[in-house]
Q: What sequence folds into this?
């Protein structure tokens, strides 16, 4: 039967069948991209956000320079912070350094991808196709798991110890 | 917080270092503004008057159609917060979180309305607000108006807002992300704390509704 003839096909099938809560990783040379995720968008929303971790296991630094999803016109790298009850925003014009031996986290409370000119609303449970652009590793195709409208963290984490915000009872492990 | 990204390494390019310095300067300047705003929020003496320094009358277009006049809210405490629909991170999660909280409060017999005032009136028309707010509980009403009306209400509420240009020619907004608890006289009764868990926030709401005013 076909089933054992195409392990790669099986793998793809397995990926498509997983729930968005299940962690998913990508390898691009020395980079490991951990669980790219986004959030369901409210009615008529024109923007969405993208979050993930990048671990550089190589010996050279790399740089994340951008990202995109098919459902949006374009993507930009931004950084957000809360200072004294004020949300501060700034574009990361030079991208985001991914130093060798380190894990960089894009999360709601910090660096993130902002997708503009959204053409299709993102719905919880979907996976949306997209890309990440790195200076060295090039363009890497990924899928963003769409979490609930209220999600402040993904339902599961793919990187051990990268985030202490795992919500009790929602950690599906590795 | 644990989700804070690691700092850039010291080997960052001169351009990145220059960028970081600029960002630091911007933060420092912003901090001065925030401290000033925080001082403005502090109660003056132990008898805050109904004519509080935070808040003021408004009459704005409602996401549910028609207008909302703060005069009509007299006698009932309410909540106010500011944002905009093209806000990818904290605005939608705050709306969703507050919505869940208000519904929880409702199921316990409490009733309070919240007003989400856009700081981006050029893009957030009444129609945009109608569609957007439909994704959240009915207990939150979106409000918009003319740029002048929005500027006025933001000033009255001492809400910080700054337009930040984006590389692609668009813009985003930096703004105060606080849920204001307003008493039955329209006076400021303090911020609602959504970060310490719903139990505490529900306690704050119960007190606001039972006291009615900030005395």
A:
């Amino acid at each position: 039967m076909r089933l054992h003839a195409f392990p790669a096909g099986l793998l793809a099938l397995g990926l498509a069948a997983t729930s968005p809560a299940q962690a998913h990783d990508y390898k691009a040379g020395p980079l490991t991209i951990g669980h790219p995720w986004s959030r369901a968008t409210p009615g008529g929303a024109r923007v969405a956000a993208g979050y993930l971790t990048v671990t550089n296991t190589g010996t050279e630094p790399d740089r994340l320079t951008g990202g995109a999803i098919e459902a949006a016109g374009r993507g930009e790298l931004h950084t957000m912070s809360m200072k004294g009850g004020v949300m501060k925003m700034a574009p990361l014009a030079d991208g985001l350094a991914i130093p060798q031996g380190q894990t960089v986290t894009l999360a709601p409370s910090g660096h993130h991808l902002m997708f503009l000119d959204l053409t299709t609303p993102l719905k919880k449970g979907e996976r949306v196709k997209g890309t990440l652009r790195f200076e060295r590793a090039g363009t890497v195709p990924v899928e963003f798991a769409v979490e609930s409208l209220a999600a402040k963290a993904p339902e599961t984490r793919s990187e051990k110890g990268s985030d202490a915000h795992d919500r009790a009872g929602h950690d599906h492990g590795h | 917080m644990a989700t804070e990204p690691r700092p850039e390494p010291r080997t960052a390019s001169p351009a990145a270092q220059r960028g970081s310095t600029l960002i630091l300067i911007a933060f420092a300047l912003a901090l001065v503004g925030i401290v000033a705003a925080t001082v403005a929020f502090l109660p003056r003496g132990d008898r805050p008057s109904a004519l509080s320094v935070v808040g003021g009358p408004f009459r704005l277009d409602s996401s549910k159609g028609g207008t909302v006049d703060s005069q009509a809210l007299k006698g009932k405490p309410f909540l106010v917060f500011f944002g905009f629909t093209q806000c990818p991170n904290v605005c939608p999660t705050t709306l969703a979180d507050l919505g869940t909280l208000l519904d929880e409060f409702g199921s316990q017999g409490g009733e309070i309305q919240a007003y989400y005032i856009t700081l981006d009136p050029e893009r957030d028309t009444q129609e945009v607000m109608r569609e957007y707010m439909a994704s959240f509980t009915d207990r939150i009403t979106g409000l918009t108006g003319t740029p002048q009306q929005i500027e006025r209400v933001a000033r009255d509420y001492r809400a910080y807002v700054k337009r930040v240009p984006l590389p692609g020619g668009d813009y985003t907004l930096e703004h105060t992300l606080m849920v204001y608890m307003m008493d039955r006289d329209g006076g400021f009764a303090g911020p609602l704390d959504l970060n310490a868990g719903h139990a505490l926030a529900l306690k704050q709401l119960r007190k606001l509704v039972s006291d009615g005013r900030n005395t």
Q: What stands out?
A: Confidence is low (pLDDT under 50) at residues 1-12, 43-51 of chain B. Residues 39 and 64 of chain B are 35 Å apart (CA to CA).
